């Protein structure tokens, strides 16, 4: 798409574009149409670079990389795009465009204050997510991991009331404290043990001579240090972050932030530990249990939530641990499932959040018990919601079916019956907490008292447009899964 | 480079480094007019980094500089001895002094009565002269002299604060500082009786032959305790919080960036170059004791900082905890740890200086010093508070900021020694920083502005600019560490060799 630029230049461009966009948004803050145009143009340009230019290069077998810049004492700032990172980068930059359209409708529809800082932080957060995706070593990844945490803090606390302050506190302390106290020592331990923190296909720890116990401890430091992956008990920040405006919950807490977490987990397992080495050492067995527990426990909690966004948040926690669980099974098929679920869950969960935001904008409803009959007034919104929910449960013809298929196949391959039981049980739980919403929306009559349930139609056009696009995406990924599938396969085949 | 008259100025740089601020101070004292004194201060303090950088360049290119004061050959005369370690510190101290000097005129005019401003600048240059002298000199007694010069000047600087409690703070510092200096000079006396020399390099040559005698141990102990008082090692830090809290804003920024760092340098010099690591840490109990004090220093003052009501006191307690990091780096006894300790001296100097400069801006614009009054400042003074947050993040040790680099070295140094419990202490201490910085963020952004914060006086350009220069430096040194970690790495290597076997030439 963009000719004449080398891979390294394209990487820098992809990282710089959202940052430049952020400056542009800040500069045009007073003219809001212009500001929104800057957001959309930046998102489009980033999409051109990441998806239309870099993605074909990676699919063709290239591995674009920048020349490492030494930061200090042998620690380098380096970017290399391998298939898994490309997958995450593609998801983040594609959904950013859709989300920008949605944000415009939502933020204007709800007359939110301080919209300019909102869009600025959003753009910075996307740059952070792309930095994580393209990081060539743990130091670079950690750097952008913190950029993402810090840039999303103002988004989470956007409402600036006491509720937002309390949630922001949990968000910041949990994400930053876990990364500082667990992830950082794990990274430095890796540096001391292996002499490098580069991501290398096949892992770098095989020759480090760590005992199984030490390896398990290091894995635990990584898993709980990567708070963004929300494996219990470091999941509290995610429901707390739901206090943010819905576009934030949608892109950041269904895509960029949480996917950065599970992406990092998969990346560490594949490129730092090495799948084979970890499988033979047996140091990851506890992780199957921990992730399985999170899947079931979070689903059970989701069942009890009446607030729609809270229920979606606990569903996210459970779905994130699917990815961790699939990675912990350590069979080739399950790793493919883990990678594909990053894409599948992203597109489905963003649809669900979009729908929740649409309901809030049009009808100002937040609780599930208020949603009787809403499907008749908001057919597009609830139609998209249904598609997203089906994908969460894992039913065809949606994206969630494919990733779940690979996960189950991988669990079968590795004869990991714990994982199989967990996935089956959790599918039932998913159905139990999503299907009643759909039933309520389409089959139950709306309340007779109209004062409690004011007349309203669909959400604003940009909102409906965005959620329709992602709903189509959820189905399209089922019929045309080539891109995520070939990227996941490339990840496992890489020498 | 020689000019008419036949004087080779480059050769005399070490003398100029100390003589210029001293003469400048005298000139200020004679003029005693705020404006002119400030111009003198500005000129002198900007000449200092030039001297220091020229010397650093010379040291890196051609090795250690030895300068015989008054042409009396060492060890009889006073020698100024510049190598990587102190050339680096000279650059740091003089640049901070120059930046603060550029920042301060209107802040000083705001906080200090007109008839006293001349004295403020006099004492500022005097303190600078003392600190540079302590760093550059190669003579044990000369260190004591400059220590007294800088300390006396600092007592006055602190006492010039507009709050009456500043006088108490100055007096506290005076008492404790004098005890520290006395301990130091007693230690030097003991070493002198055994070696017959005051020249540091000479002492280092003689000590190995006689080091197992009791007075040498006693000398080491006296010097160690004396310097620990000066550098505010927990639990000998009690003078520091009040001194930082009640001194004029500009003086606090200067002191926080420089005073404790120079004391730490002197301690490093004695432990590594003169006594040597094997002797100084020869007793099996020494290293654990120092590490324990460093760890307590990192944890306890951090917890105390969380509960402070005055923002300057909070930052002061944070300084005490950061001193713990530096001492930790010294006591790890490996190259990585020592590099981290020295790098943290540099990084913490710019970080804490930036924080105090930002607080100085707040004090100038609104007069606010209490944290609860800072409500809403994030919206009424966004640029200043943004700089504050950047420096705060560096204090936490977020990657991409200067604080991360030194923290990485320290953790790696501890890991290389197999001291995993230290890793835990370091990360827990940085987590505590999240609490006290986060508290400011919450107050400044999530509360409605108080009356005081609502209409800030507009900020002079130079104050805003210098604060942001520091903030930019924090980000710059987060990724470009040729100066902030490269030079310390070389200094650490040189220090670990010691001077005893003719090293450090």
Could you describe the 3D structure shown?
The complex is a heterodimer of chains A (495) and B (505). Helix content of chain A is 74%, strand content 1%. Chain A has 19 helices and 2 strands. By secondary structure, chain B is mostly helical. Chain B has a two-stranded antiparallel sheet with strand order 1-2. In chain B, α2 runs antiparallel to α3 (84-103) and α3 runs antiparallel to α21 (461-479). The two termini of chain B are 24 Å apart. The mean pLDDT of chain B is 88. Classes of the chains: A mainly alpha (495), B mainly alpha (505). The interface between A and B is medium-sized, with 33 and 34 residues.
List keywords for this structure.
heterodimer; A: 495 residues; mainly alpha; B: 505 residues; two-stranded antiparallel ribbon; 22 helices; 2 strands
**Percent helix range of chain B:** over 70%
What oligomeric state best describes the polypeptide chains here? heterodimer
Helices and strands of chain B: which structural class? Answer: mainly alpha
Strand order of the largest sheet of chain B: 1-2
Order of helices and strands of chain B: HHEEHHHHHHHHHHHHHHHHHHHH
Distance between the termini of chain B: 24 Å
Form type of chain A: globular
Largest beta-sheet details of chain B: 2 strands, antiparallel
């Amino acid at each position: 798409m963009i000719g004449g630029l080398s891979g390294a230049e394209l990487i820098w461009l992809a990282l710089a574009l959202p940052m430049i966009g952020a400056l542009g948004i800040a500069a045009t803050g007073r003219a809001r149409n212009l500001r929104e145009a800057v957001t959309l143009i930046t998102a489009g340009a980033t999409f051109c670079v990441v998806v239309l230019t870099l993605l074909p290069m990676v699919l063709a077998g290239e591995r674009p990389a920048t020349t490492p810049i030494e930061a200090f004492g042998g620690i380098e700032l380096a970017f290399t795009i391998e298939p898994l990172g490309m997958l995450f980068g593609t998801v983040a930059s594609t959904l950013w465009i859709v989300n920008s359209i949605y944000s415009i409708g939502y933020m204007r529809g709800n007359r939110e204050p301080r919209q300019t800082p909102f869009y600025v932080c959003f753009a910075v957060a996307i740059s952070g997510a792309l930095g994580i995706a393209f990081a060539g070593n743990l130091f670079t990844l950690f750097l952008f991991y913190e950029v993402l945490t810090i840039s999303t803090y103002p988004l989470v606390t956007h409402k600036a009331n006491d509720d937002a302050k309390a949630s922001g506190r949990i968000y910041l302390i949990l994400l930053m404290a876990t990364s500082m106290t667990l992830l950082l020592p794990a990274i430095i331990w890796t540096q001391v043990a292996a002499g490098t923190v580069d991501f290398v296909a096949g892992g770098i720890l095989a020759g480090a001579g760590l005992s199984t116990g030490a390896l398990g401890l290091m894995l635990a430091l990584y898993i709980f240090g990567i708070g963004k992956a929300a494996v219990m008990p470091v999941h509290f920040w995610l429901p707390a972050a739901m206090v943010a405006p819905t576009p934030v919950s949608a892109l950041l807490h269904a895509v960029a932030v949480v996917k950065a977490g599970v992406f990092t987990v998969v990346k560490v397992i594949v490129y730092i530990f090495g799948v084979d080495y970890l499988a033979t050492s047996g140091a990851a067995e506890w992780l199957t249990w921990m992730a399985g527990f999170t899947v079931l426990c979070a689903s059970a909690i989701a069942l009890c939530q009446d607030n729609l966004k809270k229920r979606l948040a606990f569903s996210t926690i459970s779905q994130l641990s699917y990815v961790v669980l699939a990675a912990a099974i350590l069979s080739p098929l399950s790793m493919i499932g883990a990678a594909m679920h990053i894409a599948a869950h992203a597109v489905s969960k963003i649809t669900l959040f979009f729908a929740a935001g649409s309901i809030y904008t049009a009808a100002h409803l937040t609780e599930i018990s208020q949603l009787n009959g809403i499907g008749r007034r908001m057919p597009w919104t609830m139609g998209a919601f249904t598609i997203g929910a089906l994908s969460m449960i894992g039913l065809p013809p949606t994206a969630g079916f494919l990733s779940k298929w690979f996960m189950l196949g991988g669990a079968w391959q590795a004869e990991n019956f714990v994982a199989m039981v967990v996935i089956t049980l959790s599918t039932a739980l998913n159905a139990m907490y999503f299907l009643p919403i759909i039933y309520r929306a389409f089959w139950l009559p709306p309340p007779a008292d109209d004062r409690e349930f004011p007349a309203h139609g669909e959400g604003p056009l940009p909102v409906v447009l965005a959620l329709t696009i992602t709903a189509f995406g959820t189905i399209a990924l089922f019929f045309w899964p080539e891109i995520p599938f070939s990227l996941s396969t490339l990840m496992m085949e890489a020498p | 480079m020689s000019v008419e008259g036949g004087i080779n100025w480059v050769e005399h740089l070490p003398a100029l480094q100390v003589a210029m601020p001293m003469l400048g101070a005298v000139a200020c004292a004679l003029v005693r007019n705020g404006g002119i004194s400030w111009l003198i201060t500005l000129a002198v303090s900007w000449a200092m980094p030039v001297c220091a950088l020229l010397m650093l360049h010379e040291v890196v290119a051609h090795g250690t500089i030895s300068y015989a004061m008054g042409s009396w050959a060492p060890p009889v005369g006073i020698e100024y001895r510049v190598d990587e370690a102190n050339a680096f510190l000279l650059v740091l101290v003089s640049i901070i002094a120059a930046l603060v000097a550029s920042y301060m005129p209107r802040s000083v005019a705001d906080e200090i009565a007109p008839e006293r401003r001349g004295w403020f600048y006099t004492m500022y240059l005097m303190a600078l002269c003392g600190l540079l002298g302590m760093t550059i000199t190669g003579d044990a007694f000369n260190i004591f002299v400059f220590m007294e010069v800088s300390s006396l000047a600092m007592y006055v600087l602190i006492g010039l604060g507009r709050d009456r409690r500043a006088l108490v703070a100055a007096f506290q510092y005076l008492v404790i500082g004098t005890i520290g200096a006395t301990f130091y000079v007693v230690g030097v006396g003991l070493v002198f009786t055994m070696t017959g020399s005051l020249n540091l390099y000479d002492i280092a040559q003689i000590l190995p032959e006689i080091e197992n005698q009791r007075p040498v141990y006693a000398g080491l102990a006296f010097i160690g305790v004396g310097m620990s008082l000066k550098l505010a090692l927990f639990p000998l830090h009690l003078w520091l919080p009040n001194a930082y809290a009640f001194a004029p804003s500009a003086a606090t920024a200067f002191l926080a960036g420089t005073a404790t760092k120079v004391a730490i340098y002197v301690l490093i010099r004695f432990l590594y170059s003169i006594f040597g690591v094997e002797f100084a840490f020869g007793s099996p109990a020494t290293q654990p004791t120092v590490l324990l004090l460093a760890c307590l220093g990192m944890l306890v003052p951090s917890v105390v900082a969380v509960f402070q009501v005055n923002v300057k006191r909070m930052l002061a307690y944070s300084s005490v905890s950061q001193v713990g990091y530096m001492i930790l780096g010294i006591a790890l006894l490996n190259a990585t740890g020592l590099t981290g300790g020295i790098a943290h001296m540099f990084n913490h100097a710019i970080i804490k200086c930036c924080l105090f400069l930002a607080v100085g801006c707040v004090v100038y614009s609104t007069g606010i010093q209490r944290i609860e009054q800072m409500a809403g400042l994030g919206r009424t003074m966004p640029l200043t508070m943004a700089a504050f947050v950047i420096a705060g993040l560096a204090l936490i040790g977020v990657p991409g900021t200067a604080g991360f680099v030194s923290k990485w070295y320290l953790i790696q140094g501890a890991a290389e020694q197999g001291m995993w419990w230290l890793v835990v202490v370091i990360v827990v201490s940085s987590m505590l920083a999240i609490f006290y910085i986060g508290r400011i963020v919450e107050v400044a952004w999530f509360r409605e502005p108080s009356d005081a914060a609502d209409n800030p006086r507009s900020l002079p350009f130079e104050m805003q600019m210098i604060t942001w220069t520091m903030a930019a430096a924090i980000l710059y040194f987060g990724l470009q560490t040729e100066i902030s970690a490269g030079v310390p790495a070389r200094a650490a290597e040189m220090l670990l060799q010691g001077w005893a076997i003719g090293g450090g030439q």
